[in-house]
Design a protein that fits this description.
heterodimer; A: 405 residues; 6-stranded mixed barrel; two-stranded antiparallel sheet; 12 strands; elongated; B: 223 residues; alpha/beta; 6-stranded mixed beta sheet; 37% helix
């Protein structure tokens, strides 16, 4: 404590210089934390979106992920209900959601266009999709649909293309599992948007029973397993791949290409910015300590003559680096936390990302691990800078140091 | 009785460009443990060089030097630092106090290096402050006291560890006559009180008059 007090006193010898160094350190730390907090928020949101879209774990037929289908549902899951029942007994699993993917033509009588359909279980599907699907008109599909009155939900742009409104009647045409064509009349239950224009132009959602009737099958394309905790994904993956070998398993990360792309890009952009900021902090502190060392060469000589080891002299300068870095990091953390809270509460809308139509609220996370790592790295950088700039001076000849003017 | 410092044929030369400067030429001295020794000579005579070598902050080019019976001619820097910490005190012409440390802290510093516990440090510093007449200035910074008081602090700092030898380089050069007299008297008193040997490079006749031995150097040669 005695040495730390002495270091603090030495830092305050030149208050203006110390203040500039502190500000550079604090602003650098705040910039890293705010940038990192924004990136972290983006990662968490995209992770959530990816996991909600596909499920934390995806179950499919052994050939589903690797081979092309010659006929619809060739690589579908047949006895999926039994497997779903077994999985639901695991208390770590929230939902097991089957999906049947199919394509075909949709027509209003005058105009036909291509669709990409999803047969879903409404009971779970709209719970897991949460905020990542917005109902523009009408309502979501009912859990209990009358068999003779199948319903459909249309993507917003598709509805617009077909000039379809809620309660309008449309016809779906698709290829069955046996290769023949089948048609079905459906009523528009709702119009939705996913925020991705390309999807909204082609997507339809029907009840899974409707899709199975259209394709004349009792299979589904895949099942999404939604866990209670995303963090348990890989643990559960290992457990289930050993336990249920008759099906193929993937994690959400295997299919989250957008998430991986954005993360890769942000890691590089923010990583490079972080390195530049750290270098600025390094050179700032190096300069400060070097100037301090030059001004105190005679004092170093005196202390060495009195029996202070050169490593003790270096340690004193390193402690000055510690003082500057701790105060700078402390101020930076406070600036960052307050700015992050302020920006998150200000309800600022970010422009839509490329390929999207909807903006999203700006939020900046305050992740403890990012704060801890940044504080540690900046402190370490300050220590290295202080050590480098004082090491040589501490080894200088005592006579030379004492005669330094 | 063992001598504090003993040298044989001590030589020190510097290279200034192509010119070789012989600062010390075959110096032999024996400094007993009760010495209060003056080192006299004109500027450039080698006083400071000899003082630096005796203070273990410079190495001779040739010759041998023993400190308290130990041959330290080729001792490592670490060993020399340990000896300085435990057995030597320094008084500089320019006082060389640490400006951010109070009078108390400056005097306490060598005791911290020795690892003396806080309670004992406090007792010894308080006693020393009384001895040098600075009890009321313990919280003052060096900038807040006079030149004479600074030199008193420097003397207190040099003697707080009760060293075997104190090296003093022109300790009265920056002081007025009255203050210089006070400092000479104080150093003499401390020499008697602490049984510490002093070796003092000086131009001050009053200082040399108070010394029990005097070495005269001329062009690096002991006269």
């Amino acid at each position: 404590m005695k040495w730390l007090t002495l270091a603090a006193k030495n830092v305050l010898r030149n208050r203006r210089r110390a203040l500039v160094t502190l500000l550079i350190t604090a602003i650098g730390v705040a910039a890293i934390l705010i940038g990192g907090g924004f990136a972290n928020f983006t990662y968490v949101s995209l992770k959530e979106m990816a996991a909600r879209s596909s499920g934390h774990l995806i179950i499919a037929h052994q050939d589903y992920f690797d081979k092309e289908e010659n006929t619809p549902m060739e690589h579908g899951l047949s006895d999926y209900k039994t497997l779903a029942k077994k999985l639901k007994s695991d208390k770590d699993i929230r939902y097991v959601v089957p999906t049947l993917e199919f394509t075909g033509l949709i027509s209003n009588g005058d105009k036909s266009t291509i669709f990409m359909g999803s047969g879903v279980e409404p009971k779970y599907e709209f719970k897991v999709k949460g905020p990542f699907i917005t109902i523009d008109d009408g309502s979501i599909l009912s859990r209990r649909e009358k068999e003779n009155y199948p319903k459909v939900m249309l993507g917003k742009k598709l509805a617009s293309s077909l000039n379809a409104q809620v309660n309008d009647s449309l016809t779906l045409l698709s290829t069955t599992t046996e290769g023949s064509l089948n048609a079905m009349d459906v009523t528009v239950q709702g119009i939705f948007t996913t925020g991705i224009p390309e999807l909204d132009k082609r997507s339809i959602i029907v009840n899974i029973n409707t899709a199975q009737s259209l394709l004349i099958t009792n299979k589904v394309s895949r099942m999404g397993v939604h866990l209670r905790e995303t963090e348990t994904t890989f643990l559960k993956y290992d457990e289930y791949t050993e336990k249920y070998t008759e099906v193929a398993w993937k994690t959400w990360l295997d299919t989250a290409f957008f998430y991986l792309g954005v993360k890769n890009l942000y890691n590089r952009v923010f990583g490079l910015l972080g390195v530049i900021i750290i270098m600025m902090v390094f050179f700032s502190l190096y300069n400060t300590v070097t100037m301090s060392v030059v001004e105190r060469i005679r004092e170093i000589g005196t202390l060495r003559a009195m029996g202070t080891y050169s490593n003790e002299i270096t340690r004193n300068f390193v402690l000055e680096g510690v003082v500057i870095s701790l105060v700078g990091v402390g101020i930076g953390v406070v600036i960052s936390a307050l700015t992050s809270l302020g920006l998150s509460m200000a309800d600022i809308q970010m422009p839509p990302p490329p390929g999207r139509t909807s903006s999203y609220p700006l939020a900046i996370d305050i992740p403890a691990n990012l704060y801890l790592i940044t504080a540690t790295v900046v402190t370490a950088v300050c220590l290295v800078a202080a050590w480098l700039s004082s090491y040589k001076a501490a080894k200088k000849s005592i006579v030379g140091a004492l005669s330094h003017v | 009785m063992t001598n504090i410092i003993e040298t044989w044929n001590l030589t020190k030369h510097y290279q200034q460009g192509k010119l070789r400067v012989d600062a010390l030429c075959g110096v032999n001295i024996k400094l007993p443990s009760q010495a209060f020794t003056a080192l006299l000579g004109p500027s450039g005579s080698g006083k400071s060089t000899l003082l630096n070598i005796c203070g273990l902050i410079d190495n001779p080019s040739q010759g041998t030097i023993h400190f308290c019976g130990e041959n330290i001619t080729h001792a490592s820097e670490e060993r020399l630092t340990t000896i300085r910490r435990n057995k030597l005190g320094f008084i500089f012409q320019g006082f060389n106090l640490v400006p951010v440390m109070s009078v108390y802290d400056n005097i306490e510093y060598p005791l911290i290096l020795l690892g003396v516990n806080k309670k004992l440090r406090r007792e010894r510093v308080k006693t020393m402050l009384e001895t040098v007449g600075l009890s009321t200035f313990e919280k003052h910074l060096p900038d807040q006291v006079s030149g004479g008081q600074k030199q008193r602090v420097a003397i207190a700092r040099a003697l707080i560890t009760q060293p075997k030898l104190v090296i003093a380089d022109e300790p009265t050069a920056n002081l007025d006559t009255q203050t210089a007299t006070d400092i000479i008297n104080l150093m003499h008193k401390m020499h008697n009180d602490f049984n510490t040997a002093f070796i003092i490079a000086t131009h001050d006749d009053r200082m040399s008059a108070n010394c029990n031995t005097a070495y005269q150097l001329h062009d690096g040669v002991l006269q």
